[in-house]
Amino acid sequence: MDSNDVSADLAHVLYTKEQIQEKITELAAQIDKDYEGRDILLVGVLKGACMVMADLSRALHSHVTMDWMAVSSYGSGTTSSGVVRILKDLDSDLMGKHVLIAEDIIDSGLTLSWLKSNLQSRGPASVEVCAMLRKPDAAKVNLDVKYVGYDIPNEFVVGYGLDVAEKFRNLDCVATIAPHVYQ
Ligand SMILES: O=P(O)(O)OC[C@H]1O[C@H](OP(=O)(O)OP(=O)(O)O)[C@H](O)[C@@H]1O
Ligand SMILES: Nc1nc2[nH]cnc2c(=O)[nH]1
After folding, report:
1. Ligand 2 pocket: which of 12, 74, 105 to mutate (most atoms <8 Å of CB)?
2. CA-based Rg of the chain, rounded to a whole angstrom?
3. How is the chain split among helix, strand and coil, in percent rounded to 5?
4. Structural domains in the chain plus CATH codes
5. pLDDT averaged per 10 residues in sequence order, the chain, 183 residues
6. Residue 135: is the preceding peptide bond cis (ω within 30°)?
7. Which of 8, 59, 62, 95 is deepest in the core (most CB within 10 A)?
């Protein structure tokens, strides 16, 4: 291991690459079944959803188109403010489309709660959510989420799209970080 190896900054791996890929396969099979005969517009929420978008879209057998939105709900800290700003809007018109929002994590739920109603107001046929991770103990709003990979404890995690100061997104696992990363 070289001195800059990212794994030295991890405390505990919650889900390995294999477990994540297994879950993606499971979720994709369920989604294919539920959307039989319908095209899906996958909406990825940048930047965290980059991995789940790439993996889920490739695991699906349905016809899929992809679009991206970038929103900001976190200030400089690690607590969601609930005030969401659109940094990049969708390129597509949602009218009559079956929209499936792909997310890496639902923490307070504030980002998705806002996003779901924003997209619903654009006239789609349906809006559902697929999130790889969810923290039930951190929920601040009731959110109807149709597809969830794993429910996790209320701990800050990284990997599989999730970052600290833009690092760790490239990890193929989900992990907590070692205390020295914060020091
Ligand atoms: O449920 P919430 O408490 O609202 O938190 C979830 C949001 O936080 C993360 O995004 P972040 O704002 O960190 O941006 P990023 O995807 O660019 O990392 C994550 O990707 C979700 O979009
Ligand atoms: N990296 C990271 N970003 C988040 N955004 C909301 N919750 C989390 C989390 O646990 N980790």
Report:
1. 105
2. 16
3. 25, 35, 40
4. 20-152 (3.40.50.2020)
5. 82 97 98 98 97 98 98 66 86 97 96 95 98 97 96 97 96 95 77
6. no
7. 62
Using CA positions, which residue lies closest to atom 2 of ligand 2?
162
Ligand approaching nearest to the C-alpha of 104: 1
34 part of the active site = no
- Phi first, then psi, for residue 46 (nearest 5°) are -70, 150
Report the alpha-carbon angle 32-34-39, nearest 5.
60
Please give the Cα distance from 61 to 117 (Å, whole number). Answer: 27
Q: Could you tell me if 101 and 119 are in contact, meaning their C-beta atoms sit under 8 angstroms apart?
A: yes
Asked whether 174 and 15 are in contact (CB, 8 A), the reply is: yes
Enter the pTM of the model: 0.94
Interacting residues of 48 by C-beta distance below 8 A, sequence separation 6+: 103, 104, 105, 161, 162, 163, 169
Ligand nearest to the CA of 175: 2
Q: Where are the beta strands (DSSP E) in the chain?
A: 10-15, 40-46, 64-74, 80-88, 98-106, 126-134, 147-151, 174-177
Minimum-distance ligand 1 atom for the alpha carbon of 48: 16
Structure tokens that stand for 143 in this block: 């959110």
Catalytic-role residue among 107, 137, 144, 151: 107
